[in-house]
Amino acid sequence: MRYVFVSILLCFVLWAEAPQAFRSMGEALESELQSLKALQELKYFNKDEVDKYEQELQYCFETGYLLDEAIKEKSPEAQNLKPKYLSKLRGRQRASRHWQRIYAKALNESMESADRELFEFLVSNPLAPLKRPSFKRRTLAFYETFREEHTIAAMEVIREDLRLEEQSAAFLSTERAAFKKDQQVLAQEAVEQSDLPVLVSTKRENGRFTFYAQNRNIYPVTLTLELPSIRNFTPSDRLPKIIELAPGSKQKVLSLEVDDRRKKASFTSRYSWVMGRLSARHSDPLYALPFAAGSRVFVSQGVDGGITHKGLTRFAVDFQCPVGTKIYAARGGRVIAAESSHNKGGFDKSFGDQANYIVIEHDDHTLGKYYHLKQYGVMVRVGERVHTGQFIGYSGNTGYSSGPHLHFSVSSVDPASKNLPITLPFRFKTANGIANTPKTKDIYTVAKVR
Questions:
Q1: Per-residue confidence (pLDDT) for residue 235, from 0 to 100
Q2: Does position 308 have pLDDT exceeding 80, yes or no?
């Protein structure tokens, strides 16, 4: 079969752009529909079902347009329309999972049968599964088998994305204490002997296995429990199981019931965790520059910087400053982690776990991170509440660092992997106005904190 390759950008959309209210959710559904319109010629996708889905999304967006108008006119009706529209959006998101399953099946079959033409058509009209890290790597591995003969624009983008993720992983080594992947689940009796900060254990009772998670850290974490293989067991919840653990807490995560006691039953398990809450939602306030009022600061590496600010760390900002420069809180919150004992640094991965730092949890549960501080340069205590503009420490050159500077970022849990930190976009208030996207070589004058 020959497939007609149509760019998504040329797809005809029957209505205007997605409503402003809950725009990110609406745009994702709109983009998905555009791909579906191209994919409906395949045997996997039913044209009538796609047309029905399009009509339902149209009805959903009509409610969104009414909400936009009500908000614009400051009408009380907005309070009634808001939950109604949000409910419809979530309903469309649930319905979209049907298409995602079909898409994943088709993409798997194209790789298993080495059908390059079908593969190219599918990846050129992507749905959500292609954004998953595991799926990206699988499709890239297949693509590499024929890339020298034929290149695919959509796969070149994925190839570059993964390269940047690997590059940013070098910097993430600086934050080794903030996340752990593929940890071994312990037997219940081994818990007391373990010094792990976050652990998962199992307890067996009458053929049932129950998993418990414990967070010994003084900060919240997001934990992912996976069962790569499971035989003759039924889990009590959908896998992988993802939960948030409060500081110093312990809770039941999951249980497994044997299906048939006459047959052999087995499973393998592992878990990962990351500092922070997956549920965190950035409220996007203005951040203060973390330096003394009136001083001028130079951005040595800004957003999308060419050295380490790529992929998951793209929104971090480096400020060039001499060792011993006073650092102030860019936003208030509670100090949840700090390290000040290290005295070594250099531009090599071997120094990745030797950075001194301060991590502040903001009221919206995002994390403000201040890295490469000098030895004994942390001037606040873990658990202490700090306010914007409060003196918190001294800059340095510790850890994976190319020279004296302060590395600042706002982060949360990556919604894709769910077990890695990801930096978030933020804005600085300066004496000259608002800096929306700090870039390399920018120079700012620090505004006075009121």
A1: 92
A2: no
Q: In the predicted model, what is the mean pLDDT of the chain?
A: 85
**DSSP 8-state class, residue 417:** T
Point out which residues pair with 184 in neighbouring strands: 270
- Could you give the CA distance from residue 352 to residue 359 in angstroms, rounded to a whole number? 17
pTM score, two decimals? 0.63
Residue 306 has a pLDDT of 65
pLDDT at 4 over 60: no
Q: Return the structure tokens found at 241.
A: 């199981």
Which tokens hold the place of 268? 């393998």
The whole-angstrom separation of Cα 287 and Cα 361 is 14
Mean pLDDT of the region 254-266: 89
Distance of alpha carbon 326 from alpha carbon 270, whole angstroms: 42
**Strand intervals (E) in 379-430:** 385-386, 391-395, 399-400, 405-413, 421-423, 427-430
**Length reported for the chain:** 450
**Cα separation of 110 and 119, whole Å?**
5
Please name each of the domains of the chain with its CATH number. Answer: 8-151 (no CATH), 185-275 (2.60.40.10), 286-445 (2.70.70.10)
Mean per-residue pLDDT, 124-152: 87
pLDDT at residue 177 greater than cutoff 80: no
Single-letter amino acid, residue 182: D
Q: Is 316 left (phi over 0), alpha (psi -120 to 50) or beta?
A: beta
Rounded CA separation 304/315 (Å): 7
Mean pLDDT of 347-364: 86
Cα-Cα-Cα-Cα dihedral sign, residues 12, 14, 19, 22: negative
Angstrom distance (rounded) from CA 276 to CA 179? 10
Q: Which of 12, 23, 93 is nearest to 65 (CA)?
A: 23
Assign residue 441 a region (left: φ > 0; alpha: ψ between -120 and 50; beta: otherwise).
left
